[in-house]
Amino acid sequence: MAADEADAKLQSFLQWLQANGADLRGCTIRGCVDKVYGVFSTAVEPGSTDGVVMVVPLDLAITPMRVLQDPLVGPRLRALFEEGAVDGRLLVMLFLMAERLRPGSLWKPYLDMLPSTFGNSLWFTDEELAELEGTTLYRATVMQRKSLQTVFKDKVKGLVEELLHVDESGRPVLIFCFNISIEVLFEDFLWANSIFWTRALNIPCPRSYMFLGSSDDQLTRADGDHCSSSLPASAHQETDITAKSSSVEENSELSNHESIWVEGLVPGIDFCNHSKCSDSILGLFKELLYLYGFVLDNNPDDYLMVHYPVEALRQVQSSDIKMKLLEIQKGELRCLLPRSLLDNGFFGVRSGEENDNKKKTSPSSFSWSSQRKVPSYLNKIVFPQEFLSILRTIAMQEHELEQVGCSEDRETSDLEVQNAIWEVCGDHGSLGLLVDLLRVKSDENKNKSKVNYRSCIVYRRGQKQLARLFLREAEHLLELSANE
To answer: Of 271, 293, 312, which residue constitutes the final position of a domain?
Structure first.
């Protein structure tokens, strides 16, 4: 985007905000890196704005109720909403699509400011996506794209085309642009879906504001023209963001009214990062970030996920008995292996002193009956014992299953079952199965494309390296187990 064009869009948007009642009291919106826009503080002194740096009327919030009250798309969507054919989130997406494609939309100054594309894998070309083939990110992307394409084909495409061909009176019209009719594409739906999930906020709205009848308030252009809207001037409430919490708040005049929280977009405020994530929130996101495409060269916190397919478990011998044993152990068929585990392995970087200290803390007897010796490699196992116990259970032979029984007189604990299975089976079978899983994981991550897409390459390279390193540890353990 040329600098002049970007500046023209920004000025048009700022004029549009002002014309529709927004007030940038202690901030401004400016362009920043990567052709995006952000909110910047302009307050001379802390507290000079009484904690309110931006005020945006609720009239400008794109919420499900705002969509249902729109004179153009509201009547048709209200009927579908009452039938349960669409939900609130889809209402907002449909509105975004229709206004983006509609010639002369009064929302154009705002829509022009929004990103037109995104960097996540849903937006990858087929060639770029092929570079990820075999990874968890690839499978998740394919499933999500298929789901979105089904919704678009079955519901969205025809409905948006219908919404584009009505005028303010509700009569159907033909819309042409340069003698070419407007075509609704899947990319339009993907854009609206991405905009909603990256920018939607929880907005507190007064109950009286949410259940209004239709009226004739006006949405204002930056140049002073008007468009019919269903939001009355008397309900011209405001949504604020404060310097302390940087979040959407009710106007003080409505503090005594009951509020309803709704999802929607608030032009202006959605260019602001509202607050830093807490440690607990980051902890919840961490696994998703690592497993679904978090890209960092030589990432010290990278994870590898190894899992045994449920479908394969159902096909093994004595699957019913083994599934019962797994249930008692409360075991999961997947395991997250952080890179840091490798530091304690055979090929790790821990010092001899640290390993000696670890040996001193090891249990004196690994066998509950003392009939199976403590493995010499016990302190070098980098794989969680819980997951190894799951693999031992799956790898058990018929004669081994007969030796593992549960008491009918009392409830058997998960630890007792794990100890009994290890006593009978040892490590050889589970380590052999683990090696097979890691080899499959390593083979999955082989490059199948030469597309020079950095994110794909870095993500795959990290996964390939981790799979190779954990495979080396498992193969060495398997060799030692066989010798013992």
So the answer is: 271
- Provide the 3-class DSSP secondary structure of residue 54: strand
Domain annotation covers residue 276: no
Backbone dihedral region for residue 268 (phi beyond 0: left; psi -120 to 50: alpha; all else: beta):
left
**Residue 59 contacts residue 301 (beta carbons within 8 Å):** no
Residue 429 shares a structural domain with residue 465: yes
Closest CA to 392 of 439, 425, 436: 425
User: Rounded CA gap, 167 and 176, in Å?
Assistant: 13
Same domain, 258 and 312: no
Do 311 and 242 belong together in one domain? Answer: no
Q: Is the pLDDT of residue 32 over 80?
A: no
Give the H/E segment covering residue 479: helix 454-483
Across 171-225, where does the E strand assignment appear?
A: 176-177, 180-181, 201-206, 217-220
Note whether 169 and 294 are same-domain residues: no
**Cβ distance 383 to 335 under 8 Å?**
yes
Residue carrying structure tokens 């040892």: 426
What is the pTM assigned to this prediction?
Answer: 0.55
Q: What is the DSSP letter of 140?
A: H
**Residue 19: pLDDT above 90?**
yes
- Residue-wise pLDDT tens digits, 116-142: 888 788 888 887 787 777 777 788 889
